[in-house]
Write a structure and sequence with these properties.
alpha/beta; 7 strands; 31% helix; Aminopeptidase; seven-stranded mixed beta sheet; 8 helices
Length: 262
C-alpha cells in the first residue's frame, strides 16, 4: 500500500535529509512515473512539488523548435538545477527577465523543506505530458541533473560536469565550450549510471531521438551560489554559475547553427 511504502521510505530518507537536500543527488526512487506521482492523494501540487514550463510561439520561418532545456529533479531534489534551467533557457532566475535568445523549458521541482528525494522520478520514467510534448517537437534537448562525486568515480570535492546523452555532436560542443570556460567537463560515455544514453531518457525523446545530459557534481553546484537555499540561490548567483550558463548557451548556438530549418 502507498501509506506503508511512504512510511518505510520516509524513515530512510529523513535520516539523510540534511545532506541530500542541499548537496546530493537523489538516489531513492519511490514513484515509477510522473503520472503515478501526480495521482498520489498524499501529495499537493504547489506545496510538495511544482511544475514550470514555457513554450514559445512558433513562426512560419521556424516550423520546429530547436532546443528545450529540462530540469526533471529541480527545487530541493537536485539543488541548483532549477536556476540553471531558467538561465540556460535565457531567463534570469531572479527577475525572469529575458537575457538573450530564448529556449523552451520544463522543470519539476521539489518544494518540501526536507524529504524531497522521495519525489524523484528517473529521467527514463518521466512521462509528464508537457515534458514529452516539448522534447518531441524539438531537435535538441539538454537535461540538467545533480550527482555526487562518488557516482562519477571522482575524489570528494571535485567540481565537474559529466556530459552524457545520445547526441554526440551536441555533447562534443558542450565539452568544448564548458572546458574553454574553465569548467571541468568529462565525457560520461563510460559511466553507465550517468551516461544518459537510454532512448527512454526524456532528454533523448527529441525529433532526432537524441539529446544531451549534464550531471553536475555537488561541489560545482555549491560553488554556483553564495547561499544554497531555495529562497536565496537566485539572489546569490556566483561567477561560475554564469560561466557554466554562458558556455552551455554557446554550445546550443553552435549546434543550432548547423541545423537548417526543414
Amino acid at each position: 500500500m502507498r501509506s506503508s511504502r511512504r512510511g518505510f521510505l520516509g524513515m530512510a530518507v529523513v535520516a539523510a535529509a540534511g545532506s541530500r537536500m542541499l548537496t546530493a543527488s537523489a538516489t531513492t526512487t519511490e514513484y515509477t512515473s510522473n503520472t503515478e506521482l501526480y495521482a498520489d492523494p498524499d501529495l499537493t501540487e504547489g506545496e510538495d512539488y511544482a511544475r514550470r514550463f514555457r513554450r514559445h510561439a512558433w513562426l512560419d520561418s521556424n516550423v520546429t523548435q530547436r532546443t528545450v532545456i529540462l530540469a526533471p529533479h529541480g527545487g530541493g531534489i537536485e539543488t541548483g538545477t532549477s536556476e540553471l534551467c531558467l538561465a540556460v533557457s535565457g531567463y534570469h532566475p531572479k527577475t525572469l527577465e529575458p537575457t538573450g535568445p530564448l529556449h523552451d523549458y520544463w522543470m519539476f521541482e521539489g518544494l518540501r523543506t526536507s524529504d524531497n528525494g522521495a519525489l524523484h522520478v528517473t529521467s527514463a520514467h518521466c512521462d509528464d505530458h508537457m515534458a514529452r510534448s516539448l522534447t518531441a517537437g524539438s531537435l535538441n534537448a539538454i537535461g540538467l541533473h545533480g550527482c555526487k562525486e562518488s557516482q562519477a568515480g571522482l575524489p570528494d570535492g571535485t567540481q565537474a560536469v559529466l556530459v552524457g546523452g545520445r547526441n554526440n555532436a551536441l555533447k562534443s560542443r558542450l565539452i568544448t565550450r564548458l572546458t574553454a570556460a574553465g569548467v571541468r567537463a568529462i565525457n560520461a560515455a563510460n559511466l553507465p549510471d550517468l551516461n544518459g544514453d537510454d532512448p527512454a531518457n526524456i532528454a533523448n525523446r527529441t525529433l532526432l531521438g537524441a539529446g544531451a545530459q549534464l550531471e553536475i557534481t555537488t561541489p560545482l553546484r555549491l560553488a554556483m551560489f553564495g547561499i544554497n537555499s531555495r529562497a536565496e540561490r537566485k539572489n546569490t548567483l556566483q561567477d561560475v554559475f554564469w560561466s557554466f550558463t554562458n558556455a552551455t548557451r554557446a554550445a546550443i548556438a553552435d549546434i543550432e547553427a548547423t541545423q537548417p530549418i526543414t
